[in-house]
Write a structure and sequence with these properties.
The protein is an all-alpha fold. It has helices at residues 7-22, 38-50, 56-80, 93-103, 112-124, 128-163, 172-180. The longest helix has 36 residues, at 128-163. The termini are far apart.
Length: 199
């Protein structure tokens, strides 16, 4: 019962282990390193199947190219008014209505830059009467811009309340006033309505 096995009985076992060691090893389970945790193995499989980059440089390269493509789409959308690719501040029916409302009328504020250049040139001339006129022009332009902006903001609020009673309108009036400060041809997104055409 407690005797040792004979050499003949031990020999076949040695042959079996030798035969097993000669078999090619499965490449899916290489030895010589610890078995990875299940979460690590799953994340690695997920990354490989999703096409995600394995190294940091490749990830940065892909991110840069995606950012470039997004910016190109945004630039194109700003020029042709495609709603899908506009920046978040320009999206939505409320912002589109505000843009069209502002673009359909003349505003004093849009002429501020040319008027400012003209007034600055007048103020440089060393003639007392011309400098007084330029100062008065500054005051007149500023007062006109303020009065026009107040009138526009009241009209725009009224229109927004009528057309979009249940839609959030936060920041829409300020958006419209900022748009009036830009010259019509430099506005982005580009104007989609003509002057005098009511949205």
């Amino acid at each position: 019962m407690f005797r040792s096995r004979s050499k003949e009985e031990k020999a076949p076992t040695g042959k079996v282990t030798a035969d097993l060691s000669k078999q090619p090893r499965d490449p899916q389970a290489p030895k010589g390193r610890p078995t990875p945790k299940r979460s690590d193995a799953q994340s690695q499989r997920r990354r490989a199947s999703s096409g995600a980059p394995l190294d940091r440089k490749e990830a940065m390269r892909r991110q840069r190219s995606a950012r470039r493509a997004d910016l190109a789409r945004q630039r194109e959308a700003l020029s042709n008014g495609d709603e899908r690719y506009l920046p978040a501040r320009d999206k939505g029916p409320v912002r589109r209505f505000v843009r069209n409302y502002v673009d359909s009328r003349f505003c004093v504020a849009e002429f501020f830059l040319p008027l400012a250049v003209m007034i600055l040139i007048l103020s440089v001339i060393q003639v007392q009467n011309i400098q007084t006129i330029s100062l008065l022009l500054w005051l007149v332009v500023i007062v006109l811009i303020v009065l026009d902006s107040i009138r526009l903001s009241f009209q725009l609020r009224k229109q927004l309340r009528e057309r979009f009673p249940d839609t959030p309108k936060r920041g829409a009036v300020a958006y419209g006033l900022m748009r009036t400060l830009q010259m019509r041809r430099l506005r982005l997104p580009k104007p989609q309505v003509n002057r005098g055409e009511r949205p």
